[in-house]
């Protein structure tokens, strides 16, 4: 419960920062990510959330394009393959831009290969970052993590 409250407080702080000093870039990136979620899950019963921590205003346009593509591919995969009831996209901006997409679906087979996942790995590598996809810590669903240093 306390962790949930801390998450809410952090989201409020991020929103206030975006409103006061946030420039249009941060607002547009948040809207772009919200649009991706709505576009892929709007007609489904799947519960979704987007959590943003840190100043999106420091994410440049090229990196914002990567972020949108990563979220689009991850959400699309979860919708098509996981059977999940819940999907969470968490974006953290600190020294790195880190995107973590989790679902409570069936998980991902060890032998899965797809051009979309390979593309996410390539995007991370090109930007000097990392990409992992694993089961959630509790062994259910999937946890995709894409992280790159801010330029």
From TrEMBL:
CDD domains: HATPase_UhpB-NarQ-NarX-like. GO terms for molecular function: protein histidine kinase activity. It comes from the Bacteria. Keywords: Kinase, Transferase, Two-component regulatory system. One of its GO terms (biological process) is phosphorelay signal transduction system. Residues 62-151 form the Histidine kinase/HSP90-like ATPase domain. InterPro entries: HATPase_C_sf, HATPase_dom, Sensor_HK_TwoCompSys. Its EC number is 2.7.13.3. This is Histidine kinase. It comes from Nocardia seriolae. The lineage of its organism: Bacteria, Bacillati, Actinomycetota, Actinomycetes, Mycobacteriales. The gene is devS.
């Amino acid at each position: 419960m306390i962790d949930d409250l801390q998450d809410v407080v952090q989201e409020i702080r991020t929103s206030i920062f975006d409103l006061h000093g946030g420039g249009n870039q941060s607002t547009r990136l948040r809207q772009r990510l919200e649009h991706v979620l709505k576009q892929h899950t709007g007609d489904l019963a799947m519960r979704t959330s987007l959590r943003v921590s840190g100043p999106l205003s420091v994410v440049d346009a090229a990196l914002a394009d990567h972020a949108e593509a990563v979220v689009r591919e991850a959400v699309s995969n979860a919708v098509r393959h996981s059977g999940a009831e819940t999907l969470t996209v968490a974006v953290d901006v600190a020294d790195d831009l880190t995107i973590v997409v989790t679902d409570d679906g069936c998980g991902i087979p060890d032998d899965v290969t797809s051009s979309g996942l390979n593309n996410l790995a390539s995007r991370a590598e090109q930007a000097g970052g990392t990409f992992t996809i694993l089961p959630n810590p509790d062994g259910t669903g999937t946890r995709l993590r894409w992280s790159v240093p801010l330029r």
